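[step 3/7] fold_predict: job queued, chain A
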Amino acid sequence: MSAAASFEEGKLGRIAVVRLRPNEDMVTAVEAACREHGLSHALVRSAVGSLVDAVLEAGDKTIQVPGPGIEILTLAGEVRPDAGGKPQAELHGTIADGKAQVYGGRFRRGANPICITLELVLQEWLPA
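[step 4/7] structure written:
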């Protein structure tokens, strides 16, 4: 069995510790934080926070998780520039609702408003 893989030469750079505010969409807020800190390429290293409601995509399935108070259990992803050079985030993770049901997938842009705050650590990636 052979798995497809791609590799990119580069090195890790600066670290930004960021606090995102309530009612901002998580995906677009991560992109805005990268613009603000001059990170065109970045990795999400860690995060802690909550969402008002959540919408995840898992394959061709959409998972809607009504809140309030969706806990972010894990958050991983990367930010790369789009065709116009603006940071574009691709975020994946796991969340839990108020009944401790756990869900996972890719966070849909524009559908994951931050509840109280979201603190995260971004690390710059410097492609060769």
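[step 5/7] annotate
The radius of gyration is 15 Å.
Strands lie at 10-20, 42-51, 54-58, 61-65, 70-81, 87-96, 102-107, 114-127.
exit 0
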